[in-house]
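In these records, each integer encodes one residue's backbone shape. Here is one protein:

___
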Amino acid sequence: MNKLEFMRLWDMYGGLLTPTQREMTDMYFNLDLTVSEIAEQKGVSRQAVSECLAGCKKQLGEYEEALGHSKMFAEGDLYLSFLLKDIGAWAQHFLQLHPEYAADIGSLQDILQRDYSAEVASALSKTQGQ
């Protein structure tokens, strides 16, 4: 498992690891500390850190195999990306064929390019508050 894949799985399933596992993986992958540096800070052997990291990678991989959430989100993101690209290309082509609809196509393009971050944050805060 490469570092990027590990980070994706850690973001998705890291909460299922023990506090010690989360701390060591965070030190290794997010703080870019070496196994030796982590061992020194935690007062354990290098082998203990290496075994912990290997176990975490294996455990996160097993969570993904069983649940598939990370793959599902990645596929959804790609699907949406391709869909938006195709809608944009269609709008451009339609505009070339029917310039009289320039205002409507412009509105559609504005929608496709809009940043929905605030709406997403608001919707998530409402669902988390319930």
